[in-house]
UniProtKB/TrEMBL annotation:
<protein>
    <recommendedName>
        <fullName>ESPR domain-containing protein</fullName>
    </recommendedName>
</protein>
<keyword id="KW-0732">Signal</keyword>
<feature type="signal peptide">
    <location>
        <begin position="1"/>
        <end position="31"/>
    </location>
</feature>
Length: 217
């Protein structure tokens, strides 16, 4: 199986929700084999024409590795009513099954013409590695709608993660140094208009968050 993720989707005037997690949960595999497989598969890519020309409410979660947590949360209120339900508070803790035995060659990339000339609200969480947490939250209100959802989003901030790397310095005997790479190509997201939230991580034990709120008359 190729270590790279490549999906080509062309949505038009639709809500796009793409969620894909590549993880390894084999409890009977030997530790060395498990670590080797993690090293091979820790690569996540969004490229080609994925999402090009899309519009509307778009949420993308892609993960390669082990023990990663991701969330895209939205609330929209218009004229006193709530179009999308309230944002659920999100607490993030250290996963219990994070493996720190293998040296990682973790790479994330958004390339090609991905989401070029798209418009609307786009939240992307992309991660390669282990024990990482990512969250995008957005709340919009107008026309007398309640702002309680906006205040509630403060509870959605992930709790700090403890150091998951342990002795994983990349210099242990028999292991190559860890190599992390996160890239957004110059053609990706070109011509995008609207609200754009991106969390892109390669590594171990990282925490990233984007929070956006707006209240209109």
């Amino acid at each position: 199986m190729s270590p790279h993720l490549s999906r080509q989707i062309r949505p038009r005037r639709l809500i796009l929700s793409l969620g894909l997690v590549l993880g390894l949960l084999g409890t009977t595999a030997q530790a060395d084999e498990y670590d080797w497989m993690l090293q091979v598969l820790d690569s996540s890519r969004i490229n080609g024409q994925v999402g090009s020309g899309a519009s509307g409410n778009m949420a993308v979660n892609t993960a390669a590795g082990d023990g990663n947590i991701q969330a895209n949360q939205r609330q929209i209120g218009v004229g006193g009513g709530v179009v999308a339900g309230p944002v659920t508070p999100l607490g993030v803790h250290k996963p219990s099954n994070v493996s720190g035995g293998a040296a990682l060659d973790a790479q994330t990339e958004i390339g090609g013409q991905a989401f070029s000339h798209s418009a609307g609200v786009l939240g992307i969480n992309q991660v390669s590695g282990a024990g990482n947490a990512q969250v995008n939250t957005m709340s919009m209100g107008g026309g007398g709608s309640s702002s309680s959802g906006i205040r509630a989003m403060g509870a959605g901030i992930p709790k700090p993660l403890p150091n998951l790397s342990g002795q994983d310095t990349g210099r242990r005997a028999g292991h190559i140094p860890d190599r992390y790479r996160a890239v957004i190509g110059e053609g990706a997201l070109s011509g995008f208009s609207g609200v754009l939230q991106i969390n892109q991580v390669s590594g171990i034990g990282n925490m990233t968050a984007n929070h956006f709120s707006i209240s209109m008359p």
